[in-house]
Specification:
Keywords: Pyridoxal phosphate. This protein is of the alpha/beta class. Helices cover about 45% and strands about 15% of the residues. The protein has one domain: TIM Barrel, CATH 3.20.20. It has an eight-stranded parallel β-sheet. The model has no long low-confidence stretch (mean pLDDT about 95).
Length: about 230
């Protein structure tokens, strides 16, 4: 486990250097440890390395591991949220980063309100247009979702999330990330009432490009913990 902790510390140092090289502040890029499909040892190793943002993709798995997350961490749902899991999601997550349907917004808001809890949300965008990926496919669809959230009391929009195609073609990856950044700034312009601050993009294979294109939150799993169990 110590080897993993040391690896994460070296990575966060690299992220800081990359941010500075891109003309950004060190604090402008955070690292999320994606612990899905990994046991409590991964949570412990990342926490020991200073990570305070964690990502899980399945509600049930997060429930089973919830006691291993310290009280001072942010626990994000980064996988697709089904309506029938919204109640449990509202109970355990501080942020749902994968909002991709209108119906989920209302349901999550209702359960969060019943808990007297405010949950941050990010809207997932399918910038690349790949059929295998979740997310809103147009700005008009996104606007409809944001307008719905504006009428809610307990879900708070804070940003956008996307995944780039898994490819060695850096131009394709860069186009996806720059596309999300452009949509993000349109949202800031068109919906100024919200505190738009998160651009969640970049994973183990493409984080360097993501930092250059403005990511504020990297989602790193296999680079830290190896292949999924």
């Amino acid at each position: 486990m110590q080897d993993v902790t040391d690896k994460i510390r070296r990575f966060t140092d690299e992220v800081a250097s990359l941010a500075i090289r891109a003309g950004r502040s060190v604090e402008s890029v955070r690292v999320m440890a994606v612990t899905k499909f990994h046991g409590p040892w991964a949570i412990e190793a990342a926490y020991a390395a200073g990570i305070r943002v964690f990502g899980e993709s399945r509600v049930q798995e997060a429930i089973e591991k919830r006691d291993f997350f310290a009280s001072d961490v942010e626990l994000h749902l980064i996988g697709n949220l089904q309506r029938n899991k919204a109640k449990k999601a509202a109970e355990i997550f501080s942020s749902v980063d994968s909002i991709d349907r209108l119906s989920v917004i209302s349901v999550l808001d209702r359960y969060a309100a019943s808990l007297a809890k405010r949950i941050e949300i990010m809207f997932e965008m399918n910038v690349s247009g790949e059929e295998s990926k979740h997310g809103f496919s147009s700005y008009d669809e996104l606007c409809e979702a944001v307008e719905l959230a504006a009428g809610c009391t307990s879900v708070v929009p804070v940003g956008l999330m996307t995944m780039a195609p898994y490819t060695d073609d850096e131009s394709v990856i860069r186009k996806t990330f720059s596309g999300l950044r452009e949509i993000f700034y349109r949202c800031k312009r068109d919906f100024p009432a919200f505190d738009w601050r998160e651009i969640s993009m970049g994973m183990s294979n493409d984080y360097r490009i993501a930092i250059e294109e403005g990511s504020t939150l990297l989602r790193i799993g296999s680079l830290f913990f190896g292949d999924r169990g």
